[in-house]
Every structure is written in structure tokens, then in C-alpha cells.
Design a protein that fits this description.
2 copies of one chain form a homodimer. Chain A is an alpha+beta fold. Helix content of chain A is 46%, strand content 18%. In chain A, a hairpin with a 4-residue loop joins strand 5 and strand 6. Chain A binds a DNA duplex through helix 3.
DNA sequence: TGTTAGCACTCAAACTCCCTGAGTGCTAAT
DNA sequence: ATTAGCACTCAGGGAGTTTGAGTGCTAACA
């Protein structure tokens, strides 16, 4: 496996990514920086094929990289260029668009920007809420026998839910219960808000608690919500405009995004590249996904991914991904110092 | 335009919907209930073509209905069968799935059920929130200089937003401001919560108000949210599995759903059928959309639509749509009597 | 020993040509 | 007014042919 063979493999990958057509020996030989004849290239390509890095769609066609070929290229050969300062600035602007760089909006913007820049689909999985603590619990009367429970976390997430009780509460009951909840839940980490814990809490209050059951249930549901990994998606359309991907597979994939969670949740550091055929659960033929992590307080609390054709300009995409994950890490940590600021909106209704 | 010609037009539409192939004179003549020869059918079809109700893809092919042909068929010829009781029961179950039939969930279920039953995409536009009144405004401290404003409407919608102030409020200030808001906003209809009204409110409080500006701004944003028509979509995938529709057009459409709002918002009664080529803003070739309204207190407060290929079994779909819009009308009015009950969840966060 | 020119070979894709059959419009008979 | 008959049209499909990019192999060369 000499220098030249690697160079030829790289050339095949890059040409194939560029044109989408199988690459022939002549095309490679003509490339600057190769400097050997087509015949020599042919010999090397035959060897690269034997090693499993290239393949031919049919006998009289050029070569195409295999998954191993892409892997070798990505891990050992390619050297992604550093982002120029002008580009960094541009990216920062994309993140900051329409508001301060915080929370939901930050993630939303990052996803959109990634999709836009790479012309692929982008996905961000945010599981930071489950690492935050309850900073406020409140019960608010909202009509006859209807009460809204409100949960605010140190991360700035706000969730609410309306619950219906059997009776109306007196002001005294309400404030007593509210205080009780505050005392026992504020400061508790979202992760610890389990079914058992809430059951204990209820038990401690005794029979009186029975009437409050729907509220306790509501809080439990809210915390379950918080513990779920929020997925933000953008640029699905790019998958459809992509010739290499089967439209039906893309539809299937989009309808089952949740399955991505286990892939995104996987812990690793740096950048990881997965191929559609690989992972079992992520199955769009000829596709690949590049994943990176962002952190808060040293802990990995979310992932960003770019999903596109396997025939992707990795050297261009990876720096973007790295920059964004670093940037998000910086932004959310910086805020972490201050108390939870931030805007947000909850929705809901019964007509 | 005699009886027989109408019968033949109906036969062409139905056969075409069934098979997707242009329909020839012989096929029609063989159909039960026609009872004339192929030659006669040919003469009639030639006339129907002259009138613009049928067309030929090419000289030696059968006939296909034009948009006018579909229109005539839908409006004058077809008689949709009434839903049998067993079917009504089945639909009711689909609506009731996983919970009481109220609010968001009701609409969510209706959309899913419609998409499922018709194998098309379904969309529901809900603009009822803007016709409800504010039943509760609350300001809740949520961290250093951070306050959450919470808005609850008579319709059961709950919205919240975190705002950052320049200073922390004393308890006294907080309750004073809270009371002031409650006094002036509770009972006000969402529709009336305009920029000017809020400005007046602020002005009345005087200079002291300056510090509260972000909170007032927050309330304004929440009310704007409420005034927007919520769109619920389901069954996009069915559009992709549909041979007649261009995948790229479908993608474009899905990415610009909001444009549907103006079509859905249009006021009319009963059922309306639009064709993709028609409306200008709704442009998937060979597609059609069937729209119906639901009401509350006699006022139209939302629309349901089914979007599919033009080659659609209208006689089957329309009864479903009618039933669902009636059912939703019944359910939300019935609850309307009672005070706003109901569950719901708001989301939000900054990482 | 590694590189190169030359040559015979392969094979997908594109093109042509032809046939088939469903469907038509027109005309003349009923 | 309806029908049978007939000549005509034309998309779609299959078979055969051509084209050209690309290959592997071999023999000559440095």
C-alpha cells in the first residue's frame, strides 16, 4: 500500500464525489499530481479493487469507492481544510439570526444552517434537559376544577400541562400543596424525577394526596417529556433532490426519525461517520451520516448530524460540523454560568 | 346533455379512478347499466370531449376526465353513500383513541384518522384560539431577572414565554403588576390583544412601566402566537406513494404548507373541492384538495382538508370528511358549555 | 523491477426498426 | 337514433445494432 495508491484512491473518491460517474483510469492519469500513465493507474486500481476499496458497477465501467474505500479516505487520507475567518464569521451570523444565541433557537438555527450549508438533511438531538434540575414548580388555577402545573428547569426549559381534578381547591389547599411540591422538587435533577420518586412523594402526603393525583401525574408526564431527547430536523428536502437516494427509502426514514435517537445518543468523541448500510437502524441505501457531539460542563449533552448521500464532500462538511459543535458547546456553557435566562413558548389547547 | 351522456361521464371518471388508465369506449359499453354499443359510446364521448369534460392523452388512447369533468361529476352526478352505523362507530373510536376527545388531541387524532382512511395527506387548520378570551395571565419568577409570563385562554390553550428584565422585582412589585395585568386582560378576547391595546395598557401604567417592557412584549408575542392558525398535518407519506404526483412537487408543497392557510381560511360552507392547477398557491399537478369546515358557536373556527391525487374516490372521501367536521363541531361545542377543561403541554427551553 | 504503449475484448446505453393492439372517427346499413 | 364495419393512428415493447468508455493482458522499454 504505497503512497501512490493512496493518492489514486483519493482521486477516485474525489472525482466520483464530484461527477457521480464511475471513474476511469484515463481520467485519473490526466489529473495533476498523479504523473503516471493510465496503464499504471489501471494496475494500481486493480490492486485497490482486490483490497476491497474500489469496485466496478460492471466490467467495462470505471471504478467507484466501496464503503471501506470511503472509510480509508476519510480516516487516513483526507485532510479537511481549516475554516477561514471570513467563513467563521458568516457561520456565526447564521447562528445569531433573529435573536440571541440561546436555547431552542440556537439549536434550530444550527440545524437550519447546517442543512443549508451542506445541502443535506441536518439533525440535532438535544438531551441536555435531562441533566438540568427543576428550578420551579407551580400549580395555577385555570378554570373550574382545572389546574395547570408548570415546570421550569435550570436549563431554561418550561413545560406546562392542564389537569382536571375532582374538586376545586381552596386557596389554602392550593398554596399548601404548591409549597409542598416546591420544597420537595425544586433542586431535584430531572433525571431523578422517576415514577417511584413521585409515588414516594405522594405516599408521604397521605390520603389527602388522593385528590391531587392528577396533578402529580401531570408533573410526572412533564418530566418524562423533559427526559426525552428532543430531535430537531431540517433540510429533508435535500434528501429528495438527491439523485443517489431512493425516494421511498427517504420517506420511510423521515417517518421514523425517532430511530435515529439511539445512534445519536451513542457516546464517542470527535466525529463519527456512519453509512446507511451499516448500522441496521439507519437504512437509506447510498447514504451516510456524520455525527458530532456538543457538551456542557464537560458532559456530552447533545449530537449534531448531517445526513446525505454517501457521495458527499466530507472534507467540506466535517469542518462545518466541528465548528458548529464547538460553537454550541461554547455558547451553552457560557450561559451556564449565568442563571437560566431565555425565551420560549409553550403551546396547547383544546378547541 | 342527456341522461346517458352523464352516465357515460360518470363511468369514465369511476373507471379512470379505479384503474388509472385512459378509458376506452368498449370498456364503457361492457359496463352494466350502459346498454348501448361501443360505437354509441364513442359518439357520446366525442361530444363530451367537445364540451371539455373529457380529453385524450393521444389519438389512439381512451379518454380521461378533465378538471371540468371531475367538477361536473362531483357536483352534479355523484351521490356519496351515507356512512353505515358500523363505520361511524369505527370512526368514533379512531377519534377517541388514547384519551378524551378534546383539544389538540382531538384534532391530532382526526388528522391521523383522515389520512389513514383516505390514504391521502390530511390537514386541519385550527383558528379557534383567536376567538377565545384570556382567562388567566400570570407572571412567575424563574431565576435571576428572569420571569415567565403565562397565558391561558377560555379555549384551553396555554402559552408561556420567559422574559429577562433589567432588574429583579420585589414581591410587592410582582403581585402589583400581576394584578394589574389580570384586571385589564382577563376576559379580553385574544383577537383584541393588539399592539395598540398593549401600548395603551403600558401607557396607563406610566414611566414605571418601562422596566416591565419585556413582559408586555412577551404577552404580545404570545397573543400573536394564539392568533395564528395552527396547522396539523398527517399522512405526507401517502403523497409520496402516489404514482400520479410528482415527488419534487410534493416536497416543495410540504415545505410550504403555510401557504395552505389562505386556502383553508377562505369562508364557505359545506364541502369544497380544489384542484392543484387551480388555486395558484396550491400547486401539485394532478392533485386535488377537498376542504370542509367545523364550527363552534355557529362560527366557523377551523377547516379540515384531504389532499390527494385528482384521481381520487371522491364518493368515498367526502362522507368521511363530512362526518369528521360534524363530529368535531359537536365535540368542541359540547365542551364549550363547560368551562375550559383540558390537558395540554407547552414546550420550550434554552439549552 | 517498475512503467508504459498497444491491442483485443466487454458491455451498458442509446438508437433504430418493426410489430402489436387498443382505440379512434367515419360511413353506410338498420 | 343506433350500430356494425373498416381504415387509420400511435404509444409501448422487443430485437438487433452501433457506439464508446473502460478494462486486462502482453510485450517492449528504462
Amino acid at each position: 500500500m504505497n503512497e501512490r495508491k493512496l493518492k489514486i484512491l483519493a482521486a477516485v473518491v474525489e472525482e466520483y464525489v464530484r461527477t457521480g460517474e464511475p471513474v476511469g483510469s484515463k481520467a485519473i492519469a490526466n489529473l495533476p499530481g498523479i504523473g503516471v500513465s493510465a496503464a499504471t493507474v489501471r494496475n494500481d486500481m486493480a490492486m485497490l479493487e482486490q483490497l476491497g476499496f474500489l469496485e466496478q458497477p460492471h466490467t467495462s465501467a470505471g471504478r467507484v469507492p466501496t464503503i471501506s474505500g470511503y472509510r480509508l479516505y476519510i480516516e487516513k487520507i483526507m485532510t479537511p481544510p481549516a475554516l477561514p475567518d471570513s467563513e467563521r464569521e458568516r457561520l456565526d451570523n447564521m447562528l445569531a439570526e433573529q435573536g440571541p444565541m440561546t436555547g431552542e433557537l440556537l439549536i434550530q438555527n444550527a440545524t437550519t444552517a447546517l442543512a443549508e450549508l451542506t445541502q443535506c438533511a441536518a439533525v440535532v438531538s438535544d438531551f441536555s434537559p435531562k441533566f438540568s434540575v427543576i428550578s420551579k414548580v407551580e400549580v395555577i388555577p385555570a378554570g373550574k376544577r382545572v389546574y395547570v402545573v408548570l415546570l421550569i428547569t435550570s436549563g431554561g426549559a418550561i413545560k406546562n400541562k392542564a389537569c382536571r381534578l375532582e374538586f376545586d381547591l381552596t386557596n389554602e389547599q392550593l398554596s399548601m400543596f404548591s409549597d409542598y411540591l416546591a420544597k420537595h422538587l425544586e433542586g431535584v435533577s430531572v433525571e431523578e424525577l422517576s415514577e417511584e420518586r413521585m409515588a414516594d412523594l405522594a405516599a408521604a402526603m397521605g390520603a389527602y394526596m388522593m385528590t391531587m393525583a392528577p396533578l402529580v401525574q401531570g408533573i410526572l408526564e412533564l418530566s418524562r417529556d423533559l427526559q426525552q431527547h428532543a430531535l430537531t430536523f431540517s433540510g429533508e428536502k435535500n434528501l429528495f433532490s438527491c439523485e443517489d437516494l431512493d425516494k421511498m427509502e427517504v420517506v420511510r426514514f423521515i417517518e421514523h426519525k425517532e430511530e435515529l435517537i439511539k445512534l445519536l445518543d451513542d457516546s464517542f468523541s470527535g466525529i463519527r461517520v456512519l453509512f446507511g448500510e451499516d448500522g441496521g437502524s439507519f437504512v437509506i441505501g447510498n447514504s451516510s451520516m456524520i455525527v458530532s457531539k456538543y457538551r456542557k460542563g464537560g458532559k456530552s449533552v447533545g449530537s449534531l448530524g448531517v445526513i446525505g448521500p454517501m457521495r458527499l464532500d466530507y472534507a467540506k462538511v466535517i469542518p462545518y460540523l466541528e465548528y458548529f459543535s464547538q460553537k454550541i458547546t461554547d455558547l451553552i456553557s457560557e450561559e451556564g454560568e449565568e442563571p437560566p435566562p431565555e425565551e420560549q413558548t409553550g403551546e396547547q389547547g383544546k378547541g
